[in-house]
Description:
74% of the residues lie in helices and 1% in strands. It has 267 residues and is mainly alpha-helical. It has two domains: 4-107, DnaJ domain (Helix Hairpins); 120-265, no CATH class. It is elongated.
Amino acid sequence: MVNYYDILRVSPKASSAEIKSAYRRLARRLHPDSEHGSEETAVKFAAIAEAYEVLGRPRERARYDRQLAEITAAANGEGNGFEAANPIVARWRQMVAEKRYGEIIDRLLEEERREAVAFQKAVFPLAAFFIACFLTTLLKPRLFTESGVIGKLVIVTLFIVALIKLFSLLKDGIERYTVTSEQIHESLLEDDLTEERRYSRLAVGAVLIFITFACLAAGALLGSQVETAANSLPAWFGYNIDAELIFYPPILALFVDVMHSLALKFQ
């Protein structure tokens, strides 16, 4: 029976935090990408992933501990037809292990892909929102003012939908990548602050607000010096900052999110 504690290099009495810390340390060092796709590294990486899948879950760990204790108690040093010394059985076990390791690696790669997509879903619309804040106060579009009743209804509808979508994306991103002050305190006590959620929500919120106002201010400042859009197309661009400008940043963020979702479907 494989000793998962030896694979993760921890004691059988190790706490959950110690097991998680050991897994992360080994995973960073043995990740296949760190060795340019080395087959040996991939096998070791799969082994520690399999060990953590068992030891990282309390029920699975308890079941494994019972099995390990039974085997240890029954061990008498004598071989039989089902021991690893039998070449046929050893080869069979190797094939089973290789299949299991392959499934684990595939599952981990899929999880990494999902994590990358989640990160893009959070970052792309937000980046588009900041860019739109800058361009809006720079160019000062008058699409709402110059549109008819139907056009105004379309813009207002898109604005409402965009606000709901943007709020949902921000909520998901903040919950995924940030921690509350209470979680930070607990993590420091446990020495187990996760790498993916290392920023406080208050700090992230303050930074997002700051960037938004900075983009608006930068666009307004530059727009006061450069008025080419209004000079070229006065019917669609103005000289003054109007209330209608709040419509456009969320709508552009919604457009980018829709385009990103479509791109993912056609990959």
